[in-house]
Amino acid sequence: MRPLEGIRILDFTHVLAGPFCTRLLADMGADVVKVNSTKRAAANNAPSSPYYAIWNRNKRALALDMSQDDAKGVAKSLVSQADVVIDNFSLGVLDRWGIGFDDVSTSNDQVIYVQMSGMGSGGPWSDFVTYAPTIHALAGLTYTTGVPDGGPIGLGFSYNDHQAGLHGAVAILSAIEARRQTGKGQRIDLAQFEVGAAMIGVSLLDYFVNGREAKPCGNRLPYDKFAPHGCFQCRSYGGDILDERWLAIVCRDDDEWQALCSVMGAPDWCREEAFCSAEARCENAEELDRHMNAWTRDQDANELMYTLQSAGVPAGVVQTGIDLAESDPQLQAHEFIRFMDEPHPRLGETFADRLPIYFERTPCEIYERSRLLGEDNVSVLADWLGMSEDDVRAGEEAGFLT
C-alpha cells in the first residue's frame, strides 16, 4: 500500500507546474483524476503528446466538456466527493463553472482547493499572463544565473514550474494533515512568482544583512572562498560541440587543494604565492582557471572524476541527457529510468523517471502509462459517483463526457 492511497484528487491542471504536483501525489498512491476535453486537448495538453505523457502518468483520465451544463453537473458531483481540487487556470475559472471553493465548501467542508496561478490572487500583477521565462525573469532567477557583463541568460528549462509543483504537493500534504486535526478543508493560493523569488538562494539575505545587490557570477561563488570552483574542459571526442566533455571541480579548503595538486603531479605553479591560500586563489581565480584548463584539456572527464573523487576532491562530469539515460551507473543501480510495462496506444514504449523518494514500509513502485482522453470515464464515474456504464456511454454520446 502506497502512502496516499484513498486520497481523491480532481485535477484540472495543464502544462507542467500543476501536472508535476499531481504526478508526485499519484506516484505516492493518490487517485488523481485528470480532467480534460476534446476542446482543450491540444499541443502540450494533448494525451498524444510526449510532454503530456511524462507529467500525467499514474492518473486516470476523465473527459468533461465544461462548456456544457451537463458536464458542470457531473463536475459538481465529483468535487463533492473529492479530497483535493486543483487547477492552474487564470483566477476565477472554477468559480465561473460553479465549482469554486465557495460553492463547494458549504456541502463538502473537508475539501482542499489549490489555485496555482502565476502571480497569485490580489496585487497589481495578479492578471499577468505568465510562462516559465517570464516568471524566471520577474523573480530574479534570469538575472542571477547569468555571467558578469554577459547580459541575462536564464535557466533554459522550466525550473520554476518544477519548484511550484513541489510546493503545491507540500501544500496539499500539509492541508491534509491540518484537516486531520481540525476536520476542515481550506483554500490554498499558490503564487508561482513568489516561489521563484524564494528560490534565488541567499540573494535576499545578502541584501538585507549586508546591503549588497546580487550580481550574475557564472560559476564563481559570491559568498564562499572556494577556488578552483568551476567547469573545466576535458578531452573532446569529436569536432562537434556535443562531443565536448567538461568536469566540475571544487576545492573547499586547503586539504582538498593539496590533494588536487598531488593529482596534478604538484606542478611548480601550484606553489606560487598567488595560490597559497583560499583567499589568494579566489583573488587570482582567472589565472588559476587558465592553469586548470591547460591541465584538464587532455584528460578524460570520467577517468579524472574518479581519480579526483578517490583523492577526496569534489568532482563531477557535466552530464548530458544521453549520459543520464544510458550510462550513469548510479541511476542505473537505482533503476531511476525505466520503461512502462504497458505500451502507450499512440506513443508506443514510454519511460518513467522514478519518484526519487524511497519508502521502506510503503514503497512507491507503480508506474502506469498516461491515459488517453476519457479512457477512464467508466471506472472514474463508477468509483466516485456510482454511475452505470450505460449512463456514462449515454453522456459520451450526448457530447458532454468528451
Description:
- This protein has helices at residues 17-27, 50-55, 69-81, 93-96, 101-104, 132-139, 141-144, 159-182, 192-197, 203-210, 254-263, 278-283, 285-296, 301-310, 321-326, 329-333, 377-385, 389-398; strands at residues 8-11, 31-36, 60-63, 84-87, 112-117, 187-191, 229-233, 246-250, 315-317, 337-339, 351-353.
- The protein is of the alpha/beta class.
- The chain folds into 2 domains: 8-198 and 336-398, Crotonobetainyl-coa:carnitine coa-transferase, domain 1 (Rossmann fold), CATH 3.40.50.10540; 229-326, formyl-coa transferase, domain 3 (2-Layer Sandwich).
- The strands form 3 sheets. A 6-stranded parallel beta sheet has the order 3-2-1-4-5-6, with helices on both faces.
- The longest helix has 24 residues, at 159-182.
- It is elongated.
- The mean pLDDT is 94.
Order of adjacent strands in the largest pleated sheet: 3-2-1-4-5-6
CATH superfamily of the largest domain: Crotonobetainyl-coa:carnitine coa-transferase, domain 1
* Total count of domains: 2
Quick one: how many beta strands? Answer: 11
**β-sheet strand percentage:** 5-15%
Number of helices: 18
CATH domain class of the largest domain: Alpha Beta
Query: For the CA atoms, what is the radius of gyration?
Result: 26 Å
Shape estimate? elongated
> From the structure provided, what is the oligomeric state, counting identical versus distinct chains?
single chain
CATH architecture call of the largest domain: 3-Layer(aba) Sandwich
The secondary structure category is alpha/beta
Regions with little confidence, pLDDT below 50 for 5+ residues: none
Q: What's the N-to-C terminus distance?
A: 32 Å
Overall pLDDT: 94
SSE run: EHEHEHEHHEHHHEHHEEHHHHEHHEEHH
CATH topology type of the largest domain: Rossmann fold
Percent range of helical residues = 25-40%
State the major sheet. 6 strands, parallel
